């Protein structure tokens, strides 16, 4: 009886592991797709990214002001 229960436990543990792998794979796939498509809301401030910006930069993940701040920081980080 104990062996039978152990088998069930192992099978459930294995199923849970498989489910976790499937979920993380799906999340990674969605994240990749979202990055390729860009997004509606800015990652920096949460405001809506303007349609003009999304049209100009389809993969944009930040609004123009947030992107400018980010690029400025990166520039200053390199230069200083
Ligand atoms: Zn923003």
Question: Could you please describe the fold and organization of this structure?
Answer:
- This protein is an all-alpha fold and 80 residues long.
- The longest helix has 36 residues.
- The protein starts with a helix and ends with a helix.
- It has one domain.
- The protein has three helices and no strands.
- It binds zinc ion (ZN).
- The site of zinc ion (ZN) has 8 residues, from helix 3.
- Zinc ion binds next to helix 3.
The set of bound ligands, ions and cofactors reads: zinc ion
What is the β-strand count?
0
Shape descriptor: elongated
- Outline the low-pLDDT stretches: none
As for the number of domains, it is: 1
SSE string, helices as H and strands as E: HHH
Tell me the Rg in angstroms: 22 Å
Task: State the share of residues found in helices, binned by percent.
Answer: over 70%
Strand content: under 5%
Reported for the largest beta sheet, the result is: none
Average pLDDT number: 87
For the record, give the distance between the C-alpha atoms at the N and C termini, rounded to a whole number.
69 Å
Tally the helices: 3
Derived structural class? mainly alpha
